[in-house]
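Residues pack. Consider this:
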Amino acid sequence: MASEKLTEYELKRLENIRRNDEMLAALKIQSKATELFAAAKRQRVEAKSYNVKSEKKPKTETPVVIRRSLRSRGMPPDSKGLSDDSVDTSKLKDESPTKFKASDKISCPITIAYDEAVSDRPLIEAIMGMSKRETHSRASNGEVFSGSKDGDFLNDKREAGSGVSFHTEKRREDNAWTSLQLQSLTLKAENVARVVPGRITSVRFFPSSNARMIVAGNKFGNVGFWNVDFAGDEGNGIYLYRPHKVPISGILVQEHCLSKIYTSCYDGFIRMMDAENQAFNMVFSSDDSIFSLSQPTNDVNSFYIGEGRGGLSIWDNRVGKCSSKLALHEDRINTIDFNSRNPHIIATGSSDATACTWDLRSINGDQLKVLSTFTHKRAVQSAYFSRSGCTLATTSTDDVIGIYTGANFEDASTIYHYNQTGRWLSSFRAIWGWDDSNIFIGNMKRGVDVVSPVERSRVMTLQSPLMTAIPCRFDAHPYEIGTLAGATSGGQVYMWTTAEDAS
């Protein structure tokens, strides 16, 4: 027999193996390990309480998940947004701004899929309806169709070189800018919703004069839409997609074509959500991370992109290539803003602890003429011009809001504001309200500080028991004075309105 040829040591080894196998079988170790592996795999694919809905893709491609519906998560249709405990964000990895895997890049177009149970059709119809109403309104106000393929309009009532739309000029003529009473701003329960899971990195109002819709992007690549005025029988007006896989760095909704929403991301992509064709199309791709995205009001076909270590790329959407690549800063550009009075003047805020103004008419190769440099002790998270273009406000992690006025912004003053948000919150970025009178910025006590550039101090704080998280990123509705959106690191959006609008 074969066993007679084995040594005593080998026989003992075979006996030990047999006894170990019997012990493992009795303890059911193998089956438990299989169950554990399957559970761990499910947790990596989807967050707690989310059932991922597959999208419709061509047969030759693997489906990409881009939205998770409320109903598929077992939530009642009348819930106001995502519940506080619907997502266990501790199980989701916080991606580094500059390091991500190549597999995180989704280069193919992503379709907007919907089914009969939870339909995206109300969102698509709402966006297309807004776009058509705005087009009709602009035509009625004397705006002229430019004839471009994007359906853009040119305003023949705009001041030469001002870059300010007719609606804005009309409101200024009515002296509506100075009519806002800060004490009238209020927060109602129906104006609070969780729009995306996890930390919001960018929030924007649709620039519509006849509707209120908010779009927010988070650190996981999700883009959420909240139709505040939703009045349907099913759902709550909140829709969630995932066109990217790492943090969203910018959102751009074109005022002249509301059906096209652009998102930039740390993955190096800019995607356009085309509501009419129901797809997220890839517009721009970079080997570096994209940290900021902006567009001048007088050129709807150009995108200004802050990418890599201080680079600024100017993308011409008509020809599909960059017209210029400029080296402006030593570190990432966090914001790019255009001056409403002189649209060829831009301001950039950078992590190299400086903010700068530049003249786009002086491009020379990969260099650009700097007009002014404003130095901080730590990273500059934002640099925004006031509505008139006469004042510049910067926000830095050195606990300072910088105010710069004068012909060349040479008159400088600083306002102390605690800006240490830490790694779990999005950085504070002070934004201008509806005129040059007030600046809005979040604070660590779950409030919104209102800062007066004239008085060089905080004049009041917006607080409410309904605000249960720290608001970090803001946007002011461009057509509704007193309507302010604040976004948090928990995915909530708080919309402040005037008492008249809220009643």
